[in-house]
Amino acid sequence: MVRRILVALGGNAILTDDPTAKAQQLALEKTAELLIPLIKDNNVEIIVTHGNGPQVGNLLLQQLATDSKKNPAMPLDTAVAMTQGQIGYWALQAFTKALKKNGMGQVDVLPVITRTLVDKNDPAFEKPSKPIGPFYDKSGVNELLKTYPEWTFVEDSGRGYRRVVPSPKPKGFIESKALAAMVSMTVLPIISGGGGVPVVQTEDGYEGVEAVIDKDFSAARLAELIEADDLLILTAVDNVYVNFNKLDQQKLEIVTMAEINNYIEQGQFAAGSMLPKVQAAIEFVACTGHAATITSLDNLASFLATGSGTRIVP
Length: 314
Hints:
Blueprint: E1 3-9, H1 21-39, E2 44-50, H2 53-65, H3 76-101, E3 108-111, E4 115-117, E5 130-136, H4 138-147, E6 152-155, E7 161-165, E8 172-173, H5 176-183, E9 187-190, E10 197-202, E11 205-208, H6 215-225, E12 230-235, E13 241-242, E14 250-251, E15 254-256, H7 257-265, H8 274-288, E16 292-296, H9 300-306, E17 310-313
Parallel strand pairs: 1-2, 1-12, 3-9, 4-10, 12-16, 15-17
Antiparallel strand pairs: 4-8, 5-7, 6-7, 10-11, 13-14, 16-17
Helix pairs in contact: 1-3, 2-3, 6-8, 7-8
């Protein structure tokens, strides 16, 4: 029986210290090569989703830098769609190359621009929390606030300050029927990039909103929709830790829902960093009864061999 895994790629799978297009394409080529062992024996099919926080933030800065009456900056929902297409194209190129190199050139890769339904009354619109764009020091933040006083910045896991925008919870996918059908085809789909383009329902259809949806929450929702057997959230570390970066830090391996919820109540996981990944994993496990794993790209071989990483079970 074929095992179906939804793979949620973190920012480190795409963006390195070099923000050029070439560097990001090379990073995705490495990512694609690392994922090929998942499907090489034809006993696993993967569905890929990815984040876009750094890319959409950088794109907005580029847009604003050249904003004029004749060349106006695009709104946030459009920037999300633009980066979804941009990263989808890069991923298409990278996976096509990796598949051909590994004798699997018959597998088609298909990125899809995906709209994600959100509630226009979601309280997240009043409390921005999703980091986007580059890191700044305090003086950089102060300079930006002179020009954009309405922006909100937060300190991000000791790495500096980042702009945060509203991040409403995903309620579903507008293209859900088509997505479910596509997953059953012999293709490698790239779906809901950047969490999907956030839209709200109107009398006339759907309208984009100024937000960026957390890709891990969208991944959990998508994994439920496509009846995935596993949710694999890839990030920068091999395991989730309690007391992270302290002398008594402890890595989590197999952990139950009750245990992980207890750690959340203790405030063990950083908001905007590990916390949403853990919460998304919990949502998937609670809805499906299947396990979810949080680990790193570099640990994929060990994950395949032994199931290593942090595995959240019912």
